[in-house]
Amino acid sequence: MLKFYYNPVSVNARRVWVALLEKQIPFEPILVHLDGDQFDTDFTAVNPLQRVPVIIDHEFRVIESLAILDYLEAKYFTRSLMPSKPEDIAQVRMVEMLAVVELQPATVLLTRPLVGLDVDHQKLETAKERIASVVLFYESLLGNHSYFVGEDITLADIVAGTLVPSLPLFGFSLDLYPRLKAWSERLAMRESWQQTMPQPEVVESALPRIRKILERRS
Ligand SMILES: N[C@@H](CCC(=O)N[C@@H](CS)C(=O)NCC(=O)O)C(=O)O
Questions:
Q1: CATH 3.20.20.20 given to domain 86-194
Q2: Does ligand 1 lie within 6 Å of residue 37's CB atom?
Q3: Closest Cα to residue 135, out of 155, 161, 158, 110?
Q4: pLDDT in tens, the chain (218 residues)
Q5: Rg of the chain taking only CA atoms, in angstroms
Q6: Rounded to two decimals, what is the model's pTM?
Q7: 77, CA 20 to 30 Å: which among 19, 21, 39, 95?
């Protein structure tokens, strides 16, 4: 059975977890405690970069969440999460890349004060501006659709949807973006979101570990 290495507070792992559930792919979850287990020899053999998520499918190992999502999509036809029209593929990729390249690093900066780490005021303001320009663009892309590409969920919704709905927790309100708010509520009603939503006490107890990870990366 497909092995899925994850941690419940990892956004990168959550997008793979949601895809596994949406595509109804059976998997064995393997919890990696991010307080040091990621550096163990066994796990380092699985992922030399010492991060989750990782999947191993029939002895084939994939690291990097977006690569895993592409692999699952190409391998399992149970339910398609990638449209076939060139314009729709471009739309999915745009949303995914903006989430990973722009939104995620800016959100990491907003996390720093929450775990007691210093952050330069100017950098924080720049991060907020960057988030605002991405969410405004997302708001326009959504239009009057239920999801980024029409009425069916795609990888765009999974990748952006495991980041955007949490922005208010980091002090970035979605009040000015009614379509994104409604979309976040729509996603929150899905079983895959409910099953993978980290419990508040799990997040609370992970804060010191998140702090250490952010310290190492700064
Ligand atoms: N680009 C990678 C990022 C993976 C990543 O940063 N994972 C974090 C959890 S969200 C991790 O395992 N961190 C452990 C560490 O940095 O020690 C992906 O998309 O999969």
A1: no
A2: no
A3: 161
A4: 999 999 999 999 999 999 999 999 999 999 999 888 999 999 999 999 999 999 999 999 999 999 999 999 999 998 999 999 999 999 999 999 999 999 999 998 888 888 888 888 898 999 999 999 999 999 999 999 999 999 999 999 999 999 999 999 888 999 999 999 999 999 999 999 999 999 888 888 888 888 888 887 76
A5: 17
A6: 0.95
A7: 95
Half-sphere exposure of 134 (CA within 13 A, CB side): 25
Closest ligand 1 atom, CA of 100? 19
Q: Which of 99, 120, 114 is nearest to 206 (CA)?
A: 114
CATH 3.40.30.10 domain span(s) along the chain: 2-80
Atom of ligand 1 nearest to the CA of 53: 20
Q: State in Å: Cα 186 to ligand 1 middle.
A: 27
Q: Where in the chain is the domain with CATH 1.20.1050.10?
A: 86-194
162 lines ligand 1 (CB under 6 A): no
Question: 167 CA distance to ligand 1 centroid (A)?
Answer: 19
CATH code of the domain made up of 2-80: 3.40.30.10
